[in-house]
Amino acid sequence: MGQSKKPEINQEDADKIHAELAEKYGVQSIKGGRSIKYSFSPVLYKYLLSVLKKQLGSFKGKDILELGYMGTSILEYLKEKGANAHGFQNRPPHQAVDGIEFEEGFFTDLEKHFGNKKFDSIISSRVFEVNAFEKNDSGHSALDQTIQSYKSINKKLKLGGFFIIQIDYKGQLLGEDHLARLGFKPIAAKKNISGILELLVLKKVGEVK
Predict the structure, then answer these.
(1) How confident is the model at residue 45 (pLDDT cuts 50, 70, 90)?
(2) Is 34 left (phi over 0), alpha (psi -120 to 50) or beta?
């Protein structure tokens, strides 16, 4: 990403959220998939949630969708804060949670599942890393699939809404030229101590077909 993107992280807010998550869920990793590779700890969301709160002003009454959730902890946290929380992934939810809507399907088909509904923010963690040379079962590249997913996400966000992506330290994201063509503008980023991108905040600034 461009060097002009400066971290928009309030460490005090992030630490407060960390304490809340640690008290409620602990700090140990929770297995969220078929192997330890997909385990996660809710406290790892502290920066994502602090940025999300800053951009939205408040969680209360906001429509927030998490894509590829590893567990229900973050959705439960958002619900407790007053958000209308939704989860979407390509397999059934781990468990039902009262007051949270779950959908199962492909990220490229969000319109099919949510109709005319628009979200204030869509979030994801360790989902949108791109390896342009990988092929899926249908022979399409991961890059092609990712671009189609971004288009689908754009259509489900309100204009001015936020797509916040947390990535694995080995991950890569689409470049700014790609993002601009998909109706997104990077407005904030966080890098780790080694200068590797960990978190990216995209604002929807235009519609895509």
Answers:
(1) confident
(2) alpha
